[in-house]
TrEMBL record:
Assigned keywords, A-Z: Gluconeogenesis, Glycolysis, Isomerase
Active site: H13 (tele-phosphohistidine intermediate), E91 (proton donor/acceptor)
UniProt-listed GO biological process terms: gluconeogenesis; glycolytic process
Pathway: Carbohydrate degradation; glycolysis; pyruvate from D-glyceraldehyde 3-phosphate: step 3/5
Protein family: Belongs to the phosphoglycerate mutase family. BPG-dependent PGAM subfamily.
Subunit: Homodimer.
Catalytic activity of the protein: (2R)-2-phosphoglycerate = (2R)-3-phosphoglycerate
EC number annotated for this UniProt entry: 5.4.2.11
Matching NCBIfam families: pgm_1, PRK14115.1
InterPro entries per UniProt: His_Pase_superF_clade-1, His_PPase_superfam, PG/BPGM_mutase_AS, Phosphogly_mut1
Protein name: 2,3-bisphosphoglycerate-dependent phosphoglycerate mutase
Amino acid sequence: MPTQTTKLILVRHGQSQWNLENRFTGWWDVDLTELGIAEARAAGHLLAEKGLLPTRAFTSVQTRAIKTLHLALAECDRLWIPETKDWRLNERHYGGLTGLNKQETAEKHGAEQVHIWRRSFDVPPPPLETGGAYDLSADPRYAGIAIPNTESLKLTIERVLPYWQDAIVPVIAAGETVIISAHGNSLRALVKHLSGISDDDITGLEIPTGQPIIYEFDAHMQAGERYYLKDS
Ligand SMILES: O=C(O)[C@@H](CO)OP(=O)(O)O
């Protein structure tokens, strides 16, 4: 009997304005740069070139991931597929670090402390103060949602994985080719789960912008090795 596999495409948004400015971003809604737009288009071009055409799309409620999805889908003529946006695919919330420059913060608090805030598994950054410049409580897209005031990777996983299991796994199991356009840390949460990476080892994993990552699932929804589409 032929082995049937279903492919999943993960793509981190293209370079954002705050990636360029080296600022902690998290839930703050920054746009793509010109380079980010080009990266998103290149991702879609690669999908078309490899004949890997998504049939269902999931993304966060953040502009940089939504635009990346649309630019990529436009390149492979798939803008028409059903898409679902959900805050659970958002970037991890950077708390009180939101908006700060990463280099300046390292100079102030030490590189080691900043590394802990950025890459430790379960140490969340200091919380965001209510009522400040980056308070999102009046943003209509989060109406009715308990917006976190900071998140570690562990806390990010606690909202990404239930969404993955409940909303995305059944769609893949039904044979759809799913594309997820999301963020460095919401994708690290997924890759950690799918590739069985330990809490310690995940600290060393970086997800590049605009570079499609592929998993193939067997009929029992077991994920194979992950690989970059460009290398296949
Ligand atoms: O600022 C952020 O929200 C993220 C992603 O750009 O940064 P980091 O690399 O520190 O996880």
